[in-house]
Amino acid sequence: MGSFGIAVPEGRASRVFEVEQSLGNQFDLVRWFARWDTPIPNAELDELVRSGHAIHISVRPRTDNGTDILWADIAAARPGDDLYSQLETMIDNVASIGPNVYFTFNHEAETRDSESNGTAAEFVEAWRVVYQILRERTGPMTDPSDPNQIAAIYTVGNSGFTDGRAEAFYPGDEYVDVVGADIYNWYTCQGSERDWIQFDELLQPGLAFARARNKPLAIPEFGSAEDPENPNAKGDWMRNAAATLNSPEIASEILFSAWFDVTAPGGAWPNCVWDHDSSFETFEGFNDLLGATTKSGQP
Predict the structure, then answer these.
(1) Domains and CATH numbers, the chain
(2) Residue 181: what are its φ and ψ, rounded to 5°?
(3) What local confidence, expressed as pLDDT, does residue 86 receive?
(4) Tell me, what's the pLDDT at 265?
(5) Cα–Cα dist 267/130, whole Å
(6) CB 52: neighbour CB atoms within 10 A?
């Protein structure tokens, strides 16, 4: 099966090490989020790479001050243009992080958070420009699991695989190396009355999408809310994820997965608590998940 990792607030290396120390185990990979003007590489990434972590880096075309880099402008960029040069520099910087790097341009482009960047058709054309630069600067893709190649991971929120958005935003098989599915068991944490859904069921739409295109699947983010009525539910959800990721019929198709350990304080949905240690029972479940799915540093 693939590697197992974690996403932490702002990619802080100290937080990754703190969680690893509390569990007596090491993650294989760290999910790292960047904006258009985020310095890459940087001290946090250097620390994580030095300590043996693979990196999945996502770059959103939005600056730290909130200015969008429009998909239409990226799609229209040509060699010699200032924007095209920025794209080349971005790819070179990502490649300079080192081996064991995965790359996503604008994860979850189909969500409301990216609406201001443009339309689905504009995203498709922008992705294709970015992908072409990636391949020109880093070489052809022959094996997405090769640590010396940088795979481009087209990443969609899980609901996008069932309502048509994943298809609408898909750049095409020749421009995608890996399909990525962000998987969440929201339950009632967004103020809605949704069913509690186990990981193995939530995985199926993204897995079917990847299989139909003969692509490996990555799970760049996954997590579950707590069930206020059942303190064991979230930990058991994690154990279901571990069993699913290790199952013989699925394990060989998963490139990597990463727990989303980011709960925004004071956010719009304060009941959406994704932390791996949101309760004692959850911490125990996560310990089981980590022990079952990491490639390195097992107890």
Answers:
(1) 3-293 (3.20.20.80)
(2) -120, 120
(3) 97
(4) 58
(5) 32
(6) 12
User: Which phi and psi angles does 151 have, rounded to 5°?
Assistant: -80, 140
Q: What is the dihedral of CA 19, 24, 27, 33, to 10 degrees?
A: 10
pLDDT at 299: 32
169 close to 207: Cβ distance less than 8 angstroms = no
Which pLDDT belongs to residue 108? Answer: 97
Render pLDDT for 32-51 as a digit per residue (tens, 0 to 9).
999 999 999 999 999 999 99
Residue type, 298: Q
β 254-260/151-157 pair status: unpaired
Tell me the mean pLDDT in the region 150-155.
Answer: 98
Task: Provide the pairing of β-strand 217-224 with 54-60.
Answer: unpaired
Contact (Cβ atoms closer than 8 angstroms) between residue 152 and residue 103? yes
What gap in Å lies between CA 192 and CA 75, rounded to an integer? 37
The per-residue pLDDT for range 258-284, each reduced to its tens digit, is: 999 987 655 566 678 899 999 999 999
Please state at what angle helix 280-293 crosses helix 13-23, rounded to 10 degrees: 90
Q: 194 is written with which tokens? A: 């949704």
Pairing between β-strand 54-60 and β-strand 29-35 as defined by DSSP bridges = parallel
